[in-house]
Amino acid sequence: MAGKTLYDKLWDAHVVRQEEDGTALIYIDRQLLHEVTSPQAFEGLRLAHRKPWRVETNLATCDHNVPTTELKGGPETIEDPVSRIQVITLGKNAQEFGITEFGMGDPRQGIVHVVGPEEGATLPGMTVVCGDSHTATHGALGALAHGIGTSEVEHVMATQCLIQKKMKNMLVKIDGKLQPGVTPKDVVLAIIGKIGTAGGTGCAMEFGGQVFRDMSVEGRMTVCNMAIEAGARVGLVGVDDKTVEYVKGRPFAPKGEHWDLAVEAWKELHSDDDAKFDIVVEMDGSKIEPQVSWGTSPEMVLDINGMVPNPDKETDPVKANGIRRALDYMGLKADMPVKDIPVEYVFIGSCTNSRIEDLRAAASVLKGKKISDKVELAIAVPGSGLVKQQAEQEGLDKIFIEAGFEWRNPGCSMCLAMNADRLPAGKHCASTSNRNFEGRQGAGGRTHLVSPEMAAAAAVAGHFVDVRDYL
Amino acid sequence: MDKFVKLTAIVAPMDRANVDTDAIIPKQFLKSIKRSGFGPNLFDEWRYEDVGQPDADNSGRPLRKDFVLNQPRYQGAKILLTRENFGCGSSREHAPWALKDYGFDVIISPSYADIFFNNSFKNGILPIILDDKIVDALFQEVYATEGYQLTVDLQAQQIIKPNGETIAFEVDSFRRHCLLHGLDDIGLTLQHQEDIKAYEAKRKQQAPWLFAN
Questions:
Q1: Partners of residue A174 on adjacent β-strands
Q2: 1.10.238.10, 3.40.190.10, 3.40.1060.10, 3.40.50.720: which CATH number matches A168-235+271-287?
Q3: Which of A99, A413, B16, B175 has its CA 20 to 30 A from that of B156?
Q4: Taking CB atoms and an 8 Å cutoff, what residues of chain A touch B122?
């Protein structure tokens, strides 16, 4: 019998009930909640007079709507009335149902996918859900984690379970050694560029090979975070010593005897050597170049030395049409070099790239330099209050500020512009976020997805440049 | 949840691939704490000339005349015909809420993003998957005939064209059952409470650290 994949193992350990038609009831160990996708779920519970099944497995924080400029106080001080209502509603719901919440001003508050691992609230071997597609992030710890809709948020609160069908097993195997200046973000953008935004649809996508073994746990989070941008709800990396070391001592991590038992169990959390995958994609890590997205879908991505595509050279009419629309929206010309794309805004942050390693990496490029006078606004937004504290202890805030960046408070910020941080129409933004959809960062805004290092280098140059020239 | 059994309605063609949920319902409308009222802001950036705001009156806003849903011939459409990977991106359930609130009960596409596909069923929307070539042919027919209607019969799992031709489609039997009867998933799952408790008792032995708090 063939061995099991990591996904098979995680799935098998969580089946409560298997139906004949292939659907199964899957047990959920941890649900993360934020203010945008939870209010209707709480309302549903109230209307049906239902209580959370295991209230302590839920953990809430506010992130999408919180201001990142200087806080004047709690949620009641948010200027935008609709944002204010949502953040206040989360606080009220958490209190009413007895759920732990890290609210505004709490140093533990931050982007839900930064907070979960940071607190040890998401652990290897767990099933983790959140009403947010970037929940795939937590798969970096060897957890089965994926985004769900609001109906499912309510379902998990009420029953501790989800109705699921098993996904296919997909392996993205990248061996070799990354070149200096090539980061986890470039790796995942290169994967999406290769397999497309629907390349992993219906799959749990495991990342294997030397590149991921060499990668830090935070780097693995960046990669798993964007599995959804390749269509896969689940991203996974097998557990190794780095994972265990990362989790150790975190507030919600197991303690004492439980720690030893857990570590023993976690050693099994990797795909067996003879495991069978439905789809395998192989790439050579040494050939990956720094990436920049040019269009309005994360698959529209190029090497820094590449040229913007020409729709007249595309034979598939649906694709050619897509390229034409994207060129028009992005204000770019076919065949122009990526390096000629101007950069007017810079955003370093988001659940993809706002952890301490990301801030260190950007700061290492910015140290002793100034951002270009062509850049109208550059902001650095740490992923959580604790990341912010850590960065300040290391003096990173000073490097950002001296270079001309604004140093902000934690939140989702300009990744999706639900708070006041918006990219104006027509402006090009070097952004470390995860989506370059039309209007994502602000109506009419033009997003270019890059690594923190590439964003920092673009800020200095005022256009895209190869960060390897800055090392 | 609303039942879905059978429907005959006008088809609106959205001739784009990779339509993402940010396009279906832009983020400023996610600030509502309700499930209803998203219809007027469905495809907001493509549909209106100006930028929409939550809780604003949409009735006087300037429309982009060339956008499919603004064309007189597609008014009252309840079936949306579109290209591959529909609903990619954010998990926001506001996307199916907006489609449903606008009036769409059926979507036809060669493929969908997983989370959106799931969310649709939970809101009484039937997302039908058809072969690329069939979808392509439907686009041609919709463009060619003003007032083009399809009948979608979930019981029989078929689409009936105006000329009487039928197209069979597949749908998961559990999801079909729930849609036909308008069943609430939570109620169904709670019928298995004993199984959930038994699982927890066993799991607590194997992984006690997950039950420590």
A1: A283
A2: 3.40.1060.10
A3: B16
A4: 149, 151-152
